[in-house]
Specification:
- The structure holds two protein chains of two kinds.
- Chain A is α+β, with helices and mostly antiparallel strands.
- Chain A contains four helices and nine strands, in the order E-E-E-H-E-E-E-E-E-H-H-E-H.
- Chain A has a single domain, classed as OB fold (Dihydrolipoamide Acetyltransferase, E2P) (Beta Barrel).
- Helices cover 20% and strands 34% of the residues of chain A.
- Chain A has a six-stranded antiparallel beta sheet with strand order 1-2-3-9-8-5. A three-stranded antiparallel beta sheet of chain A has the order 4-6-7.
- The longest helix of chain A has 11 residues.
- By secondary structure, chain B is of the alpha/beta class.
- Classes of the chains: A alpha+beta, B alpha/beta.
- Chains A and B meet through loops of A and helix 34 of B.
């Protein structure tokens, strides 16, 4: 699975889809693959304010735990409730139904530091 | 003259030396093995591996080695100094009958006590089922739906529960309210645990909690209530207390008693929603006192709290054939994954003891347990009414088994009654109530009317017992309405044949050291010799109450003193505390000792703990619990501590440097050359050095932590010193310390131990207890005692050398087939080594899991998987494995490598191959249909010798994800049994 070119990426292997002032956040295919079968996702509360890099939740697989970090400053406006019962969506559809939260940003520059898909591909290669 | 005498002794000694039984390879084998490693001699090999700078060339100063029969004589002599009285002390420890069928077939059976923690579920279904029985007992009796598979003791279980409450409140709380009628040792352990976390323990009577509105005080996050309490009282206001606490958003822990709960409304059903957590000890379910342990403590809670629950949880899942199968669930909660973010440092359960307690319930069933409990309650009620009619005053309330007498009748004096009871070989509990001496009497299943008559004589001078006219049941809200243990497991096995066969069916599903070597790296699965085990169940060791008068525990006192002395000599330290109940507890205690040392010097700010990234996850988890801030130190390319990084961080944090935690030899299985320098760097900047003794088996007799520069080290007696792993506990983690730390060793409210013994005339600055009992788990100490006594200095050194030889022999045999990941300067390993399996993912789609499961088809337990490096296997053979066994294991690993080759070259299908479908069960092998592209014999008998030794995994590969997504931790419904 290649990394979609319409998304932005973080060094923590998360992706961000920017649509106006709404940013949808999930973890990348590479991240779900290294975690293995996801069994639990801890989601933040609605209206929680997040700074760039703040811990917002946890993804647990059978063998590992990974903290989730906010890719930008913003306020949580929606969480993917389906993950409570179907955490495996993160494995089966990391860029679609496996999205994790939506945040509202007040400043478009809030996402300017993120990588594009090409830069992320290179980052993953360099890391391995 | 002396020399001649010595020689004469040697010549006249029995030729059968234990050392030859403990050590696997024969003399001729050793020569061949040395040749394989291309070393010129054993001593040359050791010289290549152990750095000269830390080498100790002098023999350990230990007594001459004894034979198996001599050590049993010696232990008999020691045991005879213990006096077995009738102990009615209670306080969380009650006498009970261990059903003989359980004693012989579980407690004394290597098929149950030699396994490791059931990480490899497919070859551990027996004890996993036994533990699910135990969890079912706990959930049923406490009235809460989720139980773990046991904790170390009631005191630490209460402390873990406090930690859970704190985590559930996002660690913001500062006040934990404690029922002043909790057992004193529980309160003391809570205080020890709370202090470094800046939690205040607020002691309050239950009356005051309501009257003084304790729950409303800012910062309160939880409360623990004891039910029945330490005075035997079962409070009718429990529901009210729980509801009030909940109204103020406090979490409620209830410490309870399993036998009482067969008659008493369970904490999970009290008040509106019940308690949040229930803890206690399952000791009285068939486990002897053992002077304090080992016993299994229990914990149960609501489903919603499952992710902050400490300890091991056994869960139900399915295997590759869709059959039910058990496994360790939710492992990501644990310290080995979460490290400094873990909610607890707990690694071990008390599996063997939990299995016993579970079997006790299986044996008696609901009706049997209820009958035992009713009898205890009737005896207690008879005693109470008799004493009260005779003018005795007792603490009033509904009670189960315990009576506290505050004033004697007939003008008698309690102090004299206590002494008269001792004369009659009866131990009563001495305690203070409102500043006055009171006597506690706790009855149990071993008591009868003759004893109650004796007590009446002692207290009243007459032996006429009152005949109970009324019902003696619990009344009102306290009378239990709900049923329990309705599951077939608690109904089917009550005649001895059925139980015997059930236990043996379960045992047959588990691979133990009675089958083959268990080469788990870092776990030291060495021989647990029968001679070492025999004394454990002797009444003089087993039937001693932990708080019995010291005069009855003189044998134990001698055992402690000798063992402490030997361990001091072996480690090069000045003092030893036997209190910590597991390695993790040793780490925690050791770090608290370092903290107390800094505090005593006014250095409260020394809170930085440096920990190499290669450390076991327990290290950072323990450090956080002890109030330290973890700063990771890098490792270099060879896996050694990066001394440059260590120095930089030591300088950077010099003002606040508290400790360095190191493992030696390293977790990578290497004797690092830089260890002395690492210790010196940390000392130069004001820190103390904690050595994790997990790998002590490579040091004994060759070098000593104290000489290397460590200030504290814990010893896993269940690794290096032969206490069996019990299928995942008991463990024992005593700590040794240098002289300047001795005054800070753990103390105990019931007895002067630890730091209290090393300080004169000054205010003690020692840490409080880390375990419920002053000496942890005394009844398993004869095992380590016997081992050291039978090996002597030469034998112990030889064992270490052979452990290192065995590892290097195997590494050399396997090195052409697998890459060995980390080695010392000269390409040698220490007592364990890492096989790199990471490349097979790309070359053959084979994971380290596949190799582990395939090893089961070859009859072996896998080495340690993915630790300390993901995608690798760490092998530790120990000295106790013979050359034949090492060769068989190497042959299996080489055959597996050939299977991987065959996949790589396309000779075996990338998907449909014996590795991917391992392990193969009898059902699969004998099914009418065989759909694989490889043959049946390839699957089940890949090597010739397997046929004569075949161990059949009882289930196919267990689905881990399914089990974690659908957590079930109690016996599955009846349909599953009928199917």
């Amino acid at each position: 699975m290649s990394n979609p070119s319409d998304l932005l990426y973080t060094e923590d292997h998360e992706w961000a889809l920017v649509e106006g002032d709404t940013v949808t956040v999930g973890i990348t295919n590479h991240a779900q693959d290294s975690l293995g079968d996801v069994v639990f996702v801890e989601l933040p509360e609605i209206d929680q304010e997040l700074g760039n890099g703040d811990a917002l939740g946890v993804v647990e697989s059978v063998k590992a735990v990974s903290d989730l970090y906010s890719p930008c400053d913003g306020v949580v406006i929606e969480v993917n409730e389906r993950l409570n019962d179907e955490p495996e969506l993160i494995n089966s559809d990391p860029y679609g139904d496996g999205w994790i939260i939506k945040v509202k940003i007040s400043d478009p520059a809030a996402v300017s530091h993120l990588m594009d898909s090409e830069a992320y591909d290179q980052f993953v290669q360099a890391e391995s | 003259m002396n020399t001649e005498h010595h020689t004469y002794n040697k010549l006249s000694a029995h030729p059968d030396r234990f050392e030859q039984r403990h050590i696997g390879p024969r003399t001729l084998d050793i020569e061949a093995m040395i040749a394989q490693t291309k070393a010129s001699s054993l001593s040359a090999l050791i010289d290549e591996i152990v750095p000269e700078a830390i080498r100790r060339r002098r023999a350990l100063n230990l007594p001459e080695a004894k034979s198996e029969f001599e050590v049993l004589e010696q232990l008999k002599g020691i045991a005879s100094q213990n006096k077995v009285y009738k102990s009615l002390i209670g306080q969380g420890y009650f006498s009970c009958y261990t059903p003989p069928v359980i004693q012989r077939n579980i407690l004394e059976n290597p098929g149950w006590y030699t396994q490791y923690t059931p990480y490899q579920a497919e070859i551990s279904q027996g004890r996993l089922e036994a533990l699910v029985n135990y969890q079912t007992v706990i959930t049923n009796l406490t009235g809460l739906p989720l139980a773990n598979s046991s904790l170390l003791d009631e005191g630490t279980a209460a402390a873990e529960a406090m930690g859970m409450c704190w985590s559930l409140g996002r660690q913001k709380g500062t006040r934990f309210i404690v029922d002043s009628a909790c057992h004193p040792q529980t309160i003391a352990v809570l205080q020890t645990r709370a202090e470094p976390l800046d939690i205040e323990i607020v002691l309050s009577s239950r009356e005051d909690m309501l009257a003084q509105a304790e729950f409303a005080q800012a910062g309160s996050f939880g409360v623990i209530l004891q039910y029945p309490d330490t005075h035997g009282i079962t409070d009718e206001n429990m529901g009210e207390l729980i509801d009030q606490a909940h109204a103020h958003k406090l979490k409620v822990v209830v410490a309870s008693d399993l036998l009482a709960l067969t008659l008493l409304t369970p904490p999970g059903e009290l008040g509106e929603t019940g308690a949040d957590i229930v803890v206690g000890s399952s000791q009285r379910f068939g486990v002897p006192f053992g002077a304090g342990g080992p016993h299994a403590a229990f914990m149960s809670t609501h489903e919603a709290n499952k992710r902050v629950m400490p300890g091991r949880i056994i869960g139900l899942s399915v295997d590759s054939n869709g059959e039910k199968a058990y496994r360790l669930a939710l492992q990501t909660r644990e310290q080995h994954i979460r490290r400094d973010k873990a909610t607890s440092n707990i690694c071990t359960a008390q599996v063997l003891l939990a299995v016993m307690a579970g079997m006790y319930a299986v044996y008696h069933g609901a009706d049997g347990l209820k009958a035992i409990a009713s009898r205890v309650k009737r005896l207690t009620a008879t005693l109470e009414q008799t004493l009260v009619q005779g003018g005795t005053q007792v603490i009033e309330g509904q009670r189960f088994d315990t009576l506290v007498v505050t004033q004697a009748g007939n003008g008698q004096n309690l102090a004299e009654i206590y002494e008269a009871a001792l004369e009659a070989e009866i131990n009563l509990r001495k305690l203070q109530v409102n500043g006055q001496l009171a006597l506690g009497i706790s009855l149990d299943e071993t008591c009868g009317f003759d004893l109650v008559t004796k007590l009446s004589q002692l207290f009243l001078g007459q032996s006429n017992l009152v005949t109970l006219s009324d019902s003696f049941d619990f009344e009102g809200v306290l009378k239990r309405q709900s049923t329990y243990l309705d599951h077939p497991s608690f109904k089917l096995y009550q005649c001895e044949h059925e139980l015997l066969r059930y236990m043996h069916r379960l045992q047959a599903k588990d691979l133990s050291l009675t089958h083959s070597m268990i080469p788990l790296g870092s776990c030291t699965m060495k021989l647990n010799a029968t001679a070492e085990m025999i004394a454990v169940t002797w009444p003089e060791f087993a039937h001693i109450h932990p708080f019995a008068p010291l005069s009855q525990r003189q044998g134990y006192a001698e055992l402690y003193s000798l063992l402490e002395g030997w361990l001091e000599e072996i480690t090069g330290f000045s003092a030893v505390s036997l209190q910590p109940n597991a390695g993790s507890q040793g780490e925690y205690a050791g770090l608290l000792v370092i903290r107390a040392y800094h505090l005593s010097r006014g250095d409260a700010h020394r809170k930085v703990c440096l920990i190499p990234t290669s450390a076991h996850g327990t290290n950072p988890a323990s450090a956080v619990m002890a109030g330290f801030k973890v700063v990771p130190v890098k490792c270099d390319e060879r896996g050694d501590i990066d001394l440059i990084d260590l120095e930089e961080k030591s300088i950077k944090h010099a003002d606040n440097l508290g400790a360095l935690m190191i493992t030696y030899p390293s977790t990578h299985g290497v004797f690092e050359e830089g260890v002395v320098q690492a210790c010196a760097i940390v000392h130069a900047h004001g820190g103390q050095v904690y050595m994790d003794g997990a790998n002590m088996n490579a040091q004994v007799g060759l070098c000593r932590p104290g000489d290397i520069g460590a200030d504290v080290c814990h010893l896993n007696l269940h690794k290096t010193f032969c206490i069996p792993h019990g299928g995942g506990g008991p463990g024992m983690g005593p700590i040794g310390v240098v002289a300047h730390l001795a005054p800070f060793l753990p103390t105990h409210p019931e007895e002067a131990v630890g730091g209290d013994m090393h300080i004169e005339g000054e205010q003690s600055q020692a840490i409080g207890p880390v375990s419920a009992a002053p000496f942890g788990s005394p009844s398993i100490l004869p095992i380590s005692f016997a081992y050291i006594s039978m090996m002597g200095a030469d034998g112990l050194k030889k064992a270490t050398e052979i452990a290192i030889l065995n590892a290097n022999y195997m590494a050399s045999k396997l090195s052409g087939h697998y890459d060995i990941l980390y080695t010392g300067n000269n390409g040698r390993v220490a007592h364990e080594f890492i096989l790199d399996c990471r490349g097979f993912k790309a070359s053959a789609d084979i994971s380290v899991d596949d190799i582990a499961k395939r090893l089961m088809d070859y009859g072996f337990h896998a080495p340690t998987m993915s630790w300390p490096v993901i995608g690798t296997l760490m092998v530790e053979p120990t000295e106790s494995e013979s050359k034949e066994e090492l060769d068989r294991f190497c042959e299996a690993m080489i055959a597996i490598r050939e299977e991987i080759n065959a996949i790589e070259s396309g000779k075996l299908d990338r998907e449909d191959n014996p590795m991917r479908y391992a392990p193969h069960t009898v059902e699969i092998m004998t099914a009418d249909e065989w759909t694989h592209s490889y043959t049946r014999s390839q699957a089940a008998y890949p090597l010739k010798w397997i046929k004569s030794r075949k161990f059949w995994p009882s289930v196919g590969r267990v689905d881990n994800a399914y089990g974690d997504r659908n957590l079930v931790c109690t016996c599955p419904p009846m349909e599953d049994y009928e199917a």
